[in-house]
Write a structure and sequence with these properties.
Strand content: 15-25%
Distance between the termini: 23 Å
Number of strands: 13
Structural class: alpha/beta
Number of helices: 9
Shape: globular
Largest sheet: 8 strands, mixed
Order of helices and strands: EEHEHHHEHEEEHHHHEEEEEE
Amino acid sequence: MQTFNHLITTRPHEVRQVLISDLHLSPEEPALVQAFLALLDDCLALPQLKRLFILGDWFEVWIGDDGYLSLSEEEKITHWLTPLIVKLKKLRVAGCEILVMHGNRDFLLGQPFCSLFGGELIYEPYTLTVGRQNYRLEHGDALCTDDKKYQFFRKMMRNRLTQWYLLNKSLEKRLVIADKMRQKSQQNNANKAAYIMDVNDNAVLQAITDSDALLHGHTHRPDIHQATNDKKRYVLGDWRLLDKDASQTKVSAVIGTVTADSNSDDNGAKFGMVEFTVTL
């Protein structure tokens, strides 16, 4: 696996698409927010970048688009989300599509928020063509079928009636519900065996049947697995703080890139995984 600090330090003209997952952004972790802004600066410097994928859990918690949309113009000026929206909008104006997928933390994210920066909400499974291969993209939580309790919860939370019920509660009540859900999730996960929170092999085989490769996040276990004799499963990493006690803050994440030689057409495109690190 390659390691480099910024995408623009290698061959910037070859990077066509960037794929990230599990940023878990929140005002409580400003370093992660700054790292994402640094990534967007790199994306703006990539002359041939056509797409940025955010494959779920962009935010640590999302209680509805109105959490931001209902703010006054004055409140938006100082809100932590505003710099992200401004920079994403610049990226979109520069010609890069921004495609956002739900995760288990931000399943209430809607198109109205994505429209603020010209982004598009996409749904899993999403097919991405890389060269002559079709990659199946998803967040990854649906593959963890050994966790029966979570799968029941996921089915319930993805139900439109449940979401309508939640979104019709006040923002204050939704915050309380979100905090309780997060605490319960942490308690439950602390008592689960590690394999239960990882993907199930049969679920992977089923998911990859009609695709050439599978790409997901969610598990926070970045790696490249041989799913079958001729098909791979790629796992993107979560964004994490390194050396918290050091004088300089470092953030690292394993992300995906689709590259193509400037002399070749799209059929020559290749997918790869790289470590993106930022020193703040």
